Amino acid sequence: MLDLQALTQAVGDLDEPTVLELVKNFMATHPGGEEAQQVVTACQKGMGIVGNLFEKNEYFVGDLIFAGEILTQTIDLLRPALAGAASQKVGTIIIGTVQGDLHDIGKNIFAGMAEAASFEVVDLGIDVKPEAFVEKIKEVKPQIVGLSGVLTLSLDSMRNIVNELTNAGLRERVKVIIGGNPVSEAACQQIGADAFTTNAAEGVKICQRWVK
Ligand code: B12
Question: For every residue of the chain, which 3-state class applies, written as one string?
Answer without folding.
Answer: CCCHHHHHHHHHCCCHHHHHHHHHHHHCCCCCHHHHHHHHHHHHHHHHHHHHHHHCCCCCHHHHHHHHHHHHHHHHHHHHHHCCCCCCCCEEEEEEEECCCCCCHHHHHHHHHHHHCCEEEEECCCCECHHHHHHHHHHHCCCEEEEECCCCCHHHHHHHHHHHHHHCCCHHHCEEEEECCCCCHHHHHHHCCCEEECCHHHHHHHHHHHHC
